Every structure is written in C-alpha cells, then in structure tokens.
UniProtKB/TrEMBL annotation:
This is tRNA(Ile)-lysidine synthase. ATP binds at S25, G26, G27, P28, D29, S30. HAMAP family: tRNA_Ile_lys_synt (MF_01161). It comes from Desulfitobacterium chlororespirans DSM 11544. It is found in: Cytoplasm. It holds the Pfam family TilS_C.
C-alpha cells in the first residue's frame, strides 16, 4: 500500500516545501495516515516537507484521555509538533442548535484552519478512505443527489487533501499491524444510530452479500468517473458564466435570458451557482426550485419567492436577489437618487445611481464644446443630437424629471407615442421605468436616455446640442 501511495498518489497531492497539518483522532485510519506522511517525508528529505499533528479531545468518551496521550507519544517519538484541543462538544452542539456530528465537524474544521494559520501550514490532510467514499455515495444517492453529489469525496479540494481515498479499510488495518502502530477504536462507530453508521454497518454488508462483493470498489470507481464528468462540466459552467452573467454582486446576480437555450446540464448549474452567490448557501437551491426556474423558459414576468431569495425574470434577464434586496437598495444612504425635476442646464452633469447600483451621468452640451469620447468620465452609452436654437427658445420649459401620467414621445410619420408603449417596445422592465431621468418639455418627452430619442428638434445647419449618457 505504501509503495503505491508513494509513487502514484502522494507526489500529486504534496508539493515540495509543503507543511502539512494532519488531523489525527487516534483511530487506525488517522494513525496510518500520519505514519505514511511521516515516512514519506523521511524518504523525500530533499523536498523539505514538514508535518504537524493536530488532535481534538471531544470530552465525550472515557477513552479520550488515553487517545490523547497516545497521539502525543506518537508525535514525540517521531519528533514532530503536536497540537491538542479540548472542547465540550455536546454542549457546543446544543448551543448552536445542530446535531452532535454536524456541530463537532464544523468546530474541528474551524479549529484546523486556525492551526494552519498559526503553524504556517499549506495543506490539511484527513484520513478519509475508500469505505468513506462508498458510504458518501450511497448516502447522497438515498437523499436524491445529482451527479455533483454522487462524485463523492474529492482527493483534493484547495488546501484539503485525502491521501487514503483509494485505500480500503482492510488495507489500513493491515498496514497498522505490519508497522506495529498503536491505535484506538471508537465503539460509538459500531452503533447503528446515525444514517452513515447504518449504511456502513447494515446496507453495505447486505449489498456485499447479496449483490456485489466488490461494491465498495465499484462505488469508488463510480465516484471517480462522475468526478471526471463534473470537473469537465464545471469548466463549461465557468465559461458560460463569463459569457452570460450580466451582474454579479453579493445581493443580486443576473443571467441573460438566452441562458434558457443552453443544455439543461449547464443551465441547472448556472441557476444553482447564481442562487449560491446570493444566498450564501453552498448547496444552492433544492432540485424542485431549479426545475421551476427551468420550466419558466425565461418568460418575462415570471417570479418565485424562496426562503431568503427572490427570483424574477424581466426583459433584461433572470435575476436572483436576496429577499431584502429592494428594501436595502431603497434605504441605502449611498444610493444617489437625483432630486427631480430640475432645469436642464447646458454643460452640467446630472448624476444618479440606479436600482442595480450602477452610477450614471447625463447632460446637455454645446456641440462646439463637446468633448471626444475618450474625454468622458466613463463609458459613453448614448449620444443624441438636437437643434440648439430650438432648445434655447424653450429653455424655461426644458427640465429633467421622472415619468408622469400622459407622457409621450413624438415620432415622425407616426405622431405621439405613449411612454408606456416606448418602454414596452424597448423591453425596459416596469420597475426600472420610474427611476430613469427624462429630458422633458411639458408633457412631451424629448429623450429617454439609453432608450429612445423623440424626433422633435432635429439637428439643422445652425448651432447644435448633444445629449450624452455616461456609465461610470
């Protein structure tokens, strides 16, 4: 076993110069892991790899004190640092309102992260083995996981490595016997209380006896093949995200409606990713909700309220936003809502920040003084031209204001067209329309920046005026 790990596995997981934090409970799996890493370091001294052991005393079993001493003695014999942590795991679980197993696991990983920081470690090694992989695949299958979940445990995720993931429990026990390594047995693992224990103690043995004596190896292979597929799909999703994401903030994420034309394997992952970014829930949203979003087929006006999350579709895209997003935007002191109406003065910028959080500037300028595109304080999104003398004659009526009942644009060859119809034709979402500053003359709108210019006051041969919309 060691020779295979030494030649094929450990070089891929451990770079020269690494400092490894090994999580050692005292059981055969973690003891074997620590010994294999220590042995590998001796065999690869030129790579200058170092090792630190960390042990957590959960304060639950009477044997925990002896296990702590055993791990300390092992580290002393190997002349490597050993960090010991004690905490009241049962009371901690009650205080955070989680199951004992979940709370203890979260506490351990948080503790190990702190150990890594203090010891300047670059890798965290845990002793998950092939049996754990098989249990995980079955556990997730019973819960209805998709291919991402059935890919199981990864041999490496960032700084976390699992060198024994392809090794069976039997091989680990044999290694401990051959190397005369002391280890402790946690008899609570032999009690069919938790679902994972039932899978290990009841379901897997039944599958081995009645269906496939090599079921553990078969499940390990299945996870590996699905992991290959998942890694490929993740690359495709990354590429699709760069192409189709139109907004990516902590509170709001947008995807183009054309994403609904993508294969379901990609679309479903984009939906999960968007929901995860907004909600902070690593697992994203449940399958039933992903199905609902996909079934909408990008229909404008569709919306769905989920726990802590709202999803809605407008002409621009499908939007994932925190449930309190609209309230936080409207109440934010950082949002620059212009105080309108105001006179439309030449040479002055009107600034505002829209409901998405994008900063804009709009203004009117004399053509002879108008700057080139490179001289603007941001990206020029819209530029329209008017007859300057006609605007000056009506200057006292000219103003920037928001939308009002009865507003319309005059279109050559058509006549007056209601603002509502203009917005609908331009596919501007209804909730965005009231906050767009308009260049108005009485009840007639001359220009909707970024949307449409009416046909009044076309630029003639005389003095001209240019309207400019800038995205900062």
């Amino acid at each position: 076993m060691y020779e295979k790990l030494k030649q094929q596995v450990l070089p891929q997981l451990i770079a020269p110069g690494s400092r490894i934090l090994a999580a050692v409970s005292g059981g055969p799996d973690s003891v074997a892991l620590a010994h294999i890493l220590w042995r590998y370091i001796q065999d690869r001294q030129e790579q200058k790899i170092t090792l630190v052991i960390t042990h957590v005393h959960h304060g639950v079993r009477e044997e925990s004190d002896d296990e702590e001493k055993m791990v300390q003695n092992m580290a002393r014999d190997w002349e490597i640092p050993c960090l010991i942590h004690r905490f009241d795991s049962k009371n901690y679980a009650k205080s955070v309102g989680k199951s004992f197993q979940t709370a203890a696991r979260e506490w351990r990983y948080a503790c190990w992260q702190e150990d890594m920081r203090k010891e300047n470690c670059t890798l965290l090694a845990t002793a998950h083995h092939l049996g754990d992989q098989a249990e995980t695949v079955l556990y997730r299958l019973l819960r209805g996981s998709g291919t991402a979940g059935l890919a199981g445990i990864y041999p490496q995720k960032g700084e976390l490595i699992r060198p024994l993931l392809t090794v069976t429990k039997e091989d680990i026990l044999e290694y401990c016997r051959n190397e005369k390594l002391p280890y402790a047995l946690d008899h609570s693992n032999e009690e069919p209380i938790y679902v994972r224990n039932k899978i290990r103690l009841q379901l897997l043995p039944e599958l081995q006896r009645e269906y496939n004596p090599k079921i553990i190896e078969a499940l390990g292979r299945t996870a590996e093949v699905l992991r290959w597929d998942e890694e490929y799909l993740e690359e495709e999703v990354q590429s699709a995200w760069k192409r189709w994401a139109i907004l990516d903030t902590e509170q709001r994420v947008g995807l183009c409606r054309t994403t609904f034309e993508l294969p379901k394997a990609i679309l479903s992952r984009l939906i999960r990713r968007a929901a995860t970014l907004v909600s902070g829930e690593p697992r994203g949203i449940a399958f039933q909700y992903v199905e609902q979003v996909m079934a909408s087929q990008g229909q404008v006006g569709w919306s769905q309220d989920l726990p802590g999350l709202n999803i809605e579709i407008d002409y621009q895209g499908v939007w994932f936003q925190r449930a309190d997003w609209g309230q936080s935007i409207n109440e934010s002191p950082d949002i620059l809502w212009p105080s309108l109406p105001v006179g439309a003065h030449w040479g002055e910028w009107l600034p505002w920040r829209d409901e998405v959080g994008v900063n804009w500037l709009v203004g009117l300028f004399c053509l002879e003084k108008e700057a080139g595109d490179d001289d603007y304080p941001g990206q020029c999104v819209d530029k329209v031209f008017f007859d300057g003398l006609d605007l000056i004659r009506n200057g006292e009526k000219l103003q920037w204001r928001y939308r009002q009942d009865g507003d319309c644009l005059w279109i050559a060859g058509l006549g007056h067209k209601s603002l509502k119809k203009v917005f609908q034709d331009a596919k501007v979402p209804a909730k965005h329309r009231p906050v767009i500053p308009l260049l108005a003359m009485g009840n007639e709108i001359l220009w909707i920046p970024g949307v449409k210019r009416g046909d009044r006051y076309p630029l003639g041969q005389g003095k001209g005026t240019v309207g400019v919309l800038i995205k900062c």
